[in-house]
Write a sequence for this structure.
Protein backbone atom coordinates (compact mmCIF):
# COMPACT_ATOMS: atom_id res chain seq x y z
CA UNK A 1 0.00 0.00 0.00
CA UNK A 2 1.26 3.46 -0.90
CA UNK A 3 1.38 6.37 1.48
CA UNK A 4 -1.77 8.13 2.61
CA UNK A 5 -1.70 11.48 0.81
CA UNK A 6 -3.25 13.97 3.23
CA UNK A 7 -3.77 17.71 2.90
CA UNK A 8 -4.73 20.22 5.60
CA UNK A 9 -7.29 22.98 5.16
CA UNK A 10 -6.96 25.55 7.96
CA UNK A 11 -3.70 26.84 9.44
CA UNK A 12 -4.87 28.04 12.85
CA UNK A 13 -3.77 27.17 16.38
CA UNK A 14 -4.54 23.44 16.16
CA UNK A 15 -2.72 22.90 12.83
CA UNK A 16 0.79 22.33 14.25
CA UNK A 17 -0.33 19.31 16.29
CA UNK A 18 -1.83 17.73 13.17
CA UNK A 19 1.18 18.54 11.01
CA UNK A 20 3.60 17.04 13.51
CA UNK A 21 1.60 13.82 13.85
CA UNK A 22 1.24 13.37 10.10
CA UNK A 23 4.81 14.37 9.26
CA UNK A 24 6.27 11.90 11.75
CA UNK A 25 4.20 8.95 10.50
CA UNK A 26 5.93 6.91 7.79
CA UNK A 27 2.54 5.92 6.35
CA UNK A 28 1.64 9.52 5.49
CA UNK A 29 2.66 12.15 2.95
CA UNK A 30 1.48 15.69 3.74
CA UNK A 31 0.56 17.09 0.32
CA UNK A 32 -0.06 20.67 1.37
CA UNK A 33 -1.67 23.20 3.68
CA UNK A 34 -4.16 25.89 2.67
CA UNK A 35 -6.01 28.69 4.42
CA UNK A 36 -8.15 31.63 3.33
CA UNK A 37 -5.41 33.69 4.98
CA UNK A 38 -2.57 32.70 2.70
CA UNK A 39 0.02 34.40 4.92
CA UNK A 40 -0.89 32.07 7.77
CA UNK A 41 -0.73 28.96 5.57
CA UNK A 42 2.57 30.13 4.09
CA UNK A 43 4.05 30.56 7.58
CA UNK A 44 2.98 27.03 8.60
CA UNK A 45 4.34 25.61 5.35
CA UNK A 46 7.72 27.25 5.88
CA UNK A 47 7.84 26.20 9.52
CA UNK A 48 7.19 22.53 8.77
CA UNK A 49 8.66 22.30 5.25
CA UNK A 50 5.42 21.26 3.56
CA UNK A 51 3.80 22.66 0.39
CA UNK A 52 1.62 25.77 0.65
CA UNK A 53 -1.34 25.72 -1.72
CA UNK A 54 -4.28 28.02 -2.39
CA UNK A 55 -7.57 26.52 -1.17
CA UNK A 56 -8.80 25.80 -4.71
CA UNK A 57 -5.51 24.11 -5.59
CA UNK A 58 -5.65 21.84 -2.54
CA UNK A 59 -9.24 20.84 -3.33
CA UNK A 60 -8.28 20.06 -6.91
CA UNK A 61 -4.91 18.46 -6.18
CA UNK A 62 -4.86 15.08 -7.93
CA UNK A 63 -2.29 13.63 -5.51
CA UNK A 64 -4.29 14.38 -2.35
CA UNK A 65 -6.56 11.57 -1.13
CA UNK A 66 -7.93 13.04 2.12
CA UNK A 67 -8.27 16.57 3.44
CA UNK A 68 -8.39 17.40 7.15
CA UNK A 69 -10.78 20.29 7.75
CA UNK A 70 -9.43 22.57 10.50
CA UNK A 71 -11.68 25.54 9.78
CA UNK A 72 -13.90 27.11 12.46
CA UNK A 73 -16.86 24.99 13.64
CA UNK A 74 -19.46 27.07 11.80
CA UNK A 75 -17.67 26.22 8.53
CA UNK A 76 -17.28 22.48 9.09
CA UNK A 77 -20.45 21.56 7.24
CA UNK A 78 -19.98 23.79 4.20
CA UNK A 79 -16.26 23.18 3.83
CA UNK A 80 -16.82 19.46 4.39
CA UNK A 81 -19.28 19.39 1.49
CA UNK A 82 -16.73 21.20 -0.69
CA UNK A 83 -14.02 18.67 0.20
CA UNK A 84 -16.27 15.72 -0.59
CA UNK A 85 -17.53 17.47 -3.72
CA UNK A 86 -13.92 17.70 -4.88
CA UNK A 87 -13.66 13.91 -4.60
CA UNK A 88 -11.52 13.85 -1.44
CA UNK A 89 -12.03 11.83 1.71
CA UNK A 90 -12.97 14.06 4.66
CA UNK A 91 -11.81 14.32 8.26
CA UNK A 92 -13.42 17.18 10.21
CA UNK A 93 -12.15 18.73 13.41
CA UNK A 94 -14.66 18.66 16.27
CA UNK A 95 -17.54 19.18 16.31
CA UNK A 96 -18.29 17.34 13.07
CA UNK A 97 -21.00 19.92 12.31
CA UNK A 98 -23.25 22.19 14.35
CA UNK A 99 -26.49 20.51 13.18
CA UNK A 100 -27.53 16.84 13.18
CA UNK A 101 -29.10 17.37 9.75
CA UNK A 102 -25.81 18.73 8.45
CA UNK A 103 -23.88 15.78 9.87
CA UNK A 104 -26.20 13.27 8.23
CA UNK A 105 -25.99 15.25 5.01
CA UNK A 106 -22.20 14.93 5.00
CA UNK A 107 -22.45 11.17 5.59
CA UNK A 108 -24.95 10.71 2.75
CA UNK A 109 -22.90 12.87 0.39
CA UNK A 110 -19.78 10.83 1.17
CA UNK A 111 -21.59 7.52 0.73
CA UNK A 112 -23.08 8.57 -2.62
CA UNK A 113 -19.58 9.31 -3.91
CA UNK A 114 -17.85 6.30 -2.40
CA UNK A 115 -15.77 8.50 -0.09
CA UNK A 116 -14.76 8.22 3.56
CA UNK A 117 -15.82 10.67 6.27
CA UNK A 118 -14.54 10.85 9.82
CA UNK A 119 -14.08 13.35 12.59
CA UNK A 120 -12.29 14.33 15.76
CA UNK A 121 -11.72 13.95 18.59
CA UNK A 122 -9.15 11.20 18.22
CA UNK A 123 -7.75 11.71 21.72
CA UNK A 124 -9.82 8.64 22.64
CA UNK A 125 -7.32 6.55 20.63
CA UNK A 126 -4.56 7.48 23.07
CA UNK A 127 -3.16 5.28 25.79
CA UNK A 128 -5.10 6.99 28.58
CA UNK A 129 -8.68 6.47 27.40
CA UNK A 130 -7.80 3.11 25.87
CA UNK A 131 -6.43 1.85 29.19
CA UNK A 132 -9.60 3.00 30.97
CA UNK A 133 -11.68 1.19 28.36
CA UNK A 134 -9.57 -1.96 28.76
CA UNK A 135 -10.14 -1.93 32.54
CA UNK A 136 -13.90 -1.46 32.13
CA UNK A 137 -14.11 -4.20 29.48
CA UNK A 138 -12.13 -6.61 31.68
CA UNK A 139 -14.78 -6.42 34.40
CA UNK A 140 -12.32 -5.15 36.99
CA UNK A 141 -14.91 -2.71 38.40
CA UNK A 142 -17.80 -5.09 37.77
CA UNK A 143 -20.73 -4.12 35.59
CA UNK A 144 -20.80 -0.38 34.83
CA UNK A 145 -23.74 1.26 36.59
CA UNK A 146 -23.30 4.98 36.04
CA UNK A 147 -20.87 7.84 35.62
CA UNK A 148 -20.30 11.50 36.32
CA UNK A 149 -18.29 13.72 33.98
CA UNK A 150 -17.21 17.34 34.35
CA UNK A 151 -15.68 19.95 32.05
CA UNK A 152 -15.69 23.02 34.26
CA UNK A 153 -13.81 26.29 33.77
CA UNK A 154 -14.33 30.04 34.01
CA UNK A 155 -14.36 30.63 30.25
CA UNK A 156 -11.80 31.26 27.52
CA UNK A 157 -11.84 35.05 27.31
CA UNK A 158 -9.03 35.33 29.87
CA UNK A 159 -6.47 33.78 27.50
CA UNK A 160 -7.92 33.49 23.97
CA UNK A 161 -7.26 36.51 21.70
CA UNK A 162 -10.54 35.99 19.79
CA UNK A 163 -12.98 34.40 22.25
CA UNK A 164 -16.27 35.60 20.75
CA UNK A 165 -17.09 32.42 18.82
CA UNK A 166 -17.06 30.42 22.07
CA UNK A 167 -20.08 32.44 23.19
CA UNK A 168 -22.07 32.50 19.97
CA UNK A 169 -24.74 30.06 18.80
CA UNK A 170 -23.03 26.78 18.00
CA UNK A 171 -20.37 27.50 20.62
CA UNK A 172 -20.63 27.21 24.37
CA UNK A 173 -18.94 24.65 26.63
CA UNK A 174 -20.91 21.65 25.34
CA UNK A 175 -20.12 22.05 21.63
CA UNK A 176 -16.60 23.27 22.39
CA UNK A 177 -15.43 20.60 24.84
CA UNK A 178 -18.31 18.13 25.02
CA UNK A 179 -17.07 16.06 22.04
CA UNK A 180 -13.99 14.95 24.00
CA UNK A 181 -16.08 13.67 26.90
CA UNK A 182 -18.85 12.14 24.79
CA UNK A 183 -16.32 10.39 22.55
CA UNK A 184 -14.65 8.85 25.61
CA UNK A 185 -18.00 7.79 27.07
CA UNK A 186 -18.87 6.25 23.69
CA UNK A 187 -15.65 4.23 23.88
CA UNK A 188 -16.66 3.00 27.32
CA UNK A 189 -20.40 2.35 26.89
CA UNK A 190 -21.37 2.54 23.21
CA UNK A 191 -24.18 4.66 21.73
CA UNK A 192 -26.51 7.00 23.62
CA UNK A 193 -30.23 6.20 23.82
CA UNK A 194 -31.69 9.42 25.27
CA UNK A 195 -30.77 12.70 26.92
CA UNK A 196 -32.27 15.31 29.21
CA UNK A 197 -30.70 18.74 29.48
CA UNK A 198 -30.77 21.89 31.60
CA UNK A 199 -28.90 25.13 30.93
CA UNK A 200 -28.03 28.42 32.57
CA UNK A 201 -26.23 31.63 31.59
CA UNK A 202 -24.61 33.68 34.35
CA UNK A 203 -23.32 36.66 32.36
CA UNK A 204 -24.88 38.45 29.40
CA UNK A 205 -21.50 39.94 28.49
CA UNK A 206 -17.86 38.93 28.71
CA UNK A 207 -14.65 40.99 28.65
CA UNK A 208 -11.58 40.20 26.55
CA UNK A 209 -8.55 39.47 28.73
CA UNK A 210 -5.98 38.82 26.00
CA UNK A 211 -4.97 39.89 22.52
CA UNK A 212 -5.03 43.31 20.90
CA UNK A 213 -8.48 44.28 22.22
CA UNK A 214 -8.08 43.69 25.96
CA UNK A 215 -11.01 45.20 27.86
CA UNK A 216 -13.44 45.02 24.96
CA UNK A 217 -16.92 43.83 25.93
CA UNK A 218 -18.82 41.30 23.81
CA UNK A 219 -22.24 39.65 24.08
CA UNK A 220 -22.95 36.11 25.26
CA UNK A 221 -25.44 34.46 22.89
CA UNK A 222 -25.50 30.83 24.06
CA UNK A 223 -25.88 29.05 27.44
CA UNK A 224 -22.64 28.78 29.38
CA UNK A 225 -23.53 26.17 32.02
CA UNK A 226 -25.06 22.94 30.73
CA UNK A 227 -25.99 19.78 32.61
CA UNK A 228 -27.01 16.64 30.75
CA UNK A 229 -28.48 13.37 32.00
CA UNK A 230 -27.47 10.67 29.55
CA UNK A 231 -28.81 7.13 29.16
CA UNK A 232 -26.87 4.66 27.03
CA UNK A 233 -28.32 1.66 25.18
CA UNK A 234 -26.03 -0.47 27.36
CA UNK A 235 -28.08 0.64 30.39
CA UNK A 236 -25.46 2.94 31.89
CA UNK A 237 -26.81 6.28 33.13
CA UNK A 238 -25.00 9.39 34.28
CA UNK A 239 -24.45 13.11 34.03
CA UNK A 240 -22.16 15.35 32.02
CA UNK A 241 -21.74 18.98 33.12
CA UNK A 242 -19.91 21.49 30.94
CA UNK A 243 -19.43 25.07 32.06
CA UNK A 244 -17.75 28.40 31.35
CA UNK A 245 -19.08 29.71 34.70
CA UNK A 246 -17.09 27.65 37.22
CA UNK A 247 -13.53 28.97 37.72
CA UNK A 248 -12.82 26.73 40.73
CA UNK A 249 -13.64 23.06 41.32
CA UNK A 250 -12.08 19.76 42.36
CA UNK A 251 -14.12 17.20 40.43
CA UNK A 252 -12.83 14.36 38.23
CA UNK A 253 -13.00 14.52 34.45
CA UNK A 254 -14.84 11.20 34.21
CA UNK A 255 -15.65 8.81 37.05
CA UNK A 256 -17.25 5.45 36.21
CA UNK A 257 -19.10 3.58 38.93
CA UNK A 258 -19.34 -0.21 38.72
CA UNK A 259 -20.84 -2.95 40.85
CA UNK A 260 -17.38 -3.92 42.16
CA UNK A 261 -15.54 -0.60 42.25
CA UNK A 262 -14.93 2.67 40.46
CA UNK A 263 -12.62 4.13 37.85
CA UNK A 264 -11.39 7.68 37.24
CA UNK A 265 -10.41 8.16 33.62
CA UNK A 266 -7.84 10.76 32.55
CA UNK A 267 -8.62 14.05 30.84
CA UNK A 268 -10.24 13.11 27.50
CA UNK A 269 -8.74 16.25 25.93
CA UNK A 270 -5.38 14.47 25.99
CA UNK A 271 -3.98 11.20 24.69
CA UNK A 272 -2.22 10.05 27.86
CA UNK A 273 -2.89 10.28 31.57
CA UNK A 274 -3.25 7.74 34.38
CA UNK A 275 -6.38 5.81 35.33
CA UNK A 276 -7.27 5.45 38.99
CA UNK A 277 -9.07 2.24 39.99
CA UNK A 278 -10.63 1.57 43.41
CA UNK A 279 -12.23 -1.68 44.60
CA UNK A 280 -15.00 -2.34 47.15
CA UNK A 281 -12.47 -2.14 49.99
CA UNK A 282 -11.46 1.34 48.80
CA UNK A 283 -8.04 0.02 47.85
CA UNK A 284 -6.78 2.19 45.01
CA UNK A 285 -4.23 1.62 42.27
CA UNK A 286 -3.03 4.02 39.60
CA UNK A 287 -2.65 2.47 36.14
CA UNK A 288 -0.43 4.27 33.59
CA UNK A 289 -1.49 4.66 29.95
CA UNK A 290 -0.74 1.90 27.48
CA UNK A 291 0.79 1.96 24.00
CA UNK A 292 2.76 4.48 21.97
CA UNK A 293 0.13 7.22 21.60
CA UNK A 294 0.39 9.18 24.83
CA UNK A 295 1.61 12.55 23.57
CA UNK A 296 -0.26 14.98 21.32
CA UNK A 297 -1.16 12.83 18.31
CA UNK A 298 -3.99 14.83 16.74
CA UNK A 299 -4.50 13.49 13.24
CA UNK A 300 -4.28 9.85 14.35
CA UNK A 301 -8.01 9.49 13.66
CA UNK A 302 -7.52 10.50 10.03
CA UNK A 303 -4.79 7.88 9.63
CA UNK A 304 -7.04 5.27 11.25
CA UNK A 305 -9.84 6.25 8.84
CA UNK A 306 -7.64 5.37 5.89
CA UNK A 307 -6.30 2.22 7.55
CA UNK A 308 -9.81 1.03 8.39
CA UNK A 309 -10.85 1.19 4.75
CA UNK A 310 -7.94 -1.03 3.69
CA UNK A 311 -8.47 -3.43 6.59
CA UNK A 312 -12.21 -3.81 6.04
CA UNK A 313 -13.23 -2.60 9.49
CA UNK A 314 -15.12 0.35 10.94
CA UNK A 315 -13.05 3.46 11.60
CA UNK A 316 -12.51 4.25 15.26
CA UNK A 317 -13.23 7.94 14.57
CA UNK A 318 -15.70 7.41 11.75
CA UNK A 319 -18.26 9.95 10.64
CA UNK A 320 -21.14 7.95 12.09
CA UNK A 321 -19.69 8.34 15.58
CA UNK A 322 -18.93 12.03 15.06
CA UNK A 323 -22.48 12.62 13.77
CA UNK A 324 -23.91 10.69 16.74
CA UNK A 325 -22.08 13.02 19.12
CA UNK A 326 -23.52 16.05 17.30
CA UNK A 327 -27.01 14.58 17.66
CA UNK A 328 -26.43 13.97 21.39
CA UNK A 329 -25.24 17.55 21.99
CA UNK A 330 -28.07 19.04 19.94
CA UNK A 331 -30.50 16.80 21.81
CA UNK A 332 -29.26 18.12 25.15
CA UNK A 333 -29.78 21.72 24.03
CA UNK A 334 -33.21 20.99 22.55
CA UNK A 335 -34.23 19.10 25.70
CA UNK A 336 -33.36 22.14 27.81
CA UNK A 337 -35.46 24.40 25.57
CA UNK A 338 -38.45 22.03 25.52
CA UNK A 339 -38.08 20.73 29.08
CA UNK A 340 -38.51 17.21 27.78
CA UNK A 341 -36.31 14.13 27.24
CA UNK A 342 -34.99 13.58 23.71
CA UNK A 343 -34.53 10.18 22.07
CA UNK A 344 -31.35 9.83 20.01
CA UNK A 345 -32.09 8.28 16.62
CA UNK A 346 -28.61 7.30 15.43
CA UNK A 347 -26.98 4.19 16.84
CA UNK A 348 -23.45 3.56 15.54
CA UNK A 349 -21.50 0.52 16.62
CA UNK A 350 -18.87 0.83 19.33
CA UNK A 351 -15.49 0.57 17.56
CA UNK A 352 -12.84 -2.04 18.29
CA UNK A 353 -10.14 -0.96 20.75
CA UNK A 354 -6.67 0.11 19.65
Amino acid sequence: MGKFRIGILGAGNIAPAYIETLSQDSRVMVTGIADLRDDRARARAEEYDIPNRPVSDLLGHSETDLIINLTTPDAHEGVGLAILGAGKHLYNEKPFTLRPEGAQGLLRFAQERGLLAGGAPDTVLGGGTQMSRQIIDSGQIGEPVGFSAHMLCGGHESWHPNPEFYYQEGGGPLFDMGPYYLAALFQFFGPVQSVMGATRTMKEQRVRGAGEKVGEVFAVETPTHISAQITFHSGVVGTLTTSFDTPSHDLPHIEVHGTEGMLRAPDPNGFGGDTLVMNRKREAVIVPPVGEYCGNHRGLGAIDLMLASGEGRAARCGGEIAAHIVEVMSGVMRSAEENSPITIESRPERPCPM
Observations:
- The mean pLDDT is 96.
- Residues 319-338 form the longest helix (20 residues).
- DSSP finds nine helices and 16 strands in the chain.
